[in-house]
């Protein structure tokens, strides 16, 4: 007979919150487990990955992850590092690092130093953009520009353009700003916010 998978909940940065869907589901699903809250290093991505690994190792049989918000990022880092065999995973509402975090969450700046290395290490375009945003939050303009330019090679959506403009301006890199301004003019890509960041004149 097939074993029933054990559900392992991976909370976001607020851990256990009464009334949250994970808390409610954990009570209703027989045999489910939840990654325990950290007593220290609460904003450390490394510590949260280690906590997930510790929780996973206590389980036997097939496992399904149910991760929410920053828990999705934690789950992805953990999976890449440990290569576990999972029965499945529910990855709900991944955290959006381009938007201010809601009330009750830590400020993005507080996460930057801990999470930047892991985001940059993931290496694909989306996470190069996230690495650029984290570097900007951490005040590392040069690193932000390097990540934003790497991202821009393969992604040129509105958010990618704005991140590159912010990074080039923060780094004070006139050449990078000029390249982006030329690209905007040559492609006809119009965005008032980006033009304002770069100090461009409409029609100029």
Structure description:
This protein is α/β, with parallel strands linked by helices and 204 residues long. The protein folds into 2 domains: 6-92, Rossmann fold; 123-198. 54% of the residues lie in helices and 9% in strands. It has 9 helices and 4 strands. It has a 4-stranded parallel β-sheet with strand order 2-1-3-4, with helices on one face.
CATH superfamily of the largest domain: Alpha/Beta hydrolase fold, catalytic domain
Which H/E pattern describes the elements?
EHEHEHEHHHHHH
Q: According to CATH, what is the class of the largest domain? A: Alpha Beta
What does the oligomeric state look like here?
A: single chain
Shape estimate: elongated
| Number of E-type strands | 4
Kindly state the mean pLDDT as a whole number? 84
pLDDT < 50 stretches: none
CATH topology grouping of the largest domain:
Rossmann fold
Give the distance, in angstroms, between the N- and C-terminal Cα atoms: 71 Å
Q: How many H/I helices?
A: 9
Number of domains: 2
Which class do the helix and strand fractions yield?
alpha/beta
Query: How much helix, percentage-wise, in residues?
Result: 40-55%
CATH-defined architecture of the largest domain: 3-Layer(aba) Sandwich
Q: Give the strand order of the largest sheet, numbering strands 1, 2, ... along the chain.
A: 2-1-3-4
Beta-strand content: 5-15%
Radius of gyration: 20 Å
């Amino acid at each position: 007979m097939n074993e029933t998978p054990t559900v392992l909940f991976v909370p976001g940065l607020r851990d256990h919150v009464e009334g949250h869907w994970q808390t409610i589901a954990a009570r209703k699903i027989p045999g489910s487990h939840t990654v325990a809250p950290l007593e220290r290093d609460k904003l450390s991505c490394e510590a949260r990955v280690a906590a997930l690994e510790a929780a996973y190792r206590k389980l036997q049989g097939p496992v399904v992850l149910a991760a929410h918000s920053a828990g999705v990022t934690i789950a992805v880092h953990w999976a890449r590092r440990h290569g576990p065999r999972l029965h499945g995973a529910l990855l709900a509402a991944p955290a959006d690092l381009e938007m201010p975090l809601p009330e009750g969450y830590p400020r993005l700046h507080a996460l930057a130093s801990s999470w930047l290395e892991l985001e940059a290490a993931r290496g694909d375009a989306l996470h190069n953009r996230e690495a650029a945003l984290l570097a900007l939050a951490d005040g590392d303009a040069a690193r932000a520009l390097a990540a934003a330019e790497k991202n821009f090679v393969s992604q040129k959506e509105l958010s990618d353009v704005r991140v590159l403009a912010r990074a080039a301006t923060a780094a004070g890199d006139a050449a990078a700003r000029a390249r982006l301004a030329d690209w905007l003019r040559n492609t006809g890509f119009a965005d008032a916010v980006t033009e304002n960041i770069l100090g461009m004149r409409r029609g100029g």
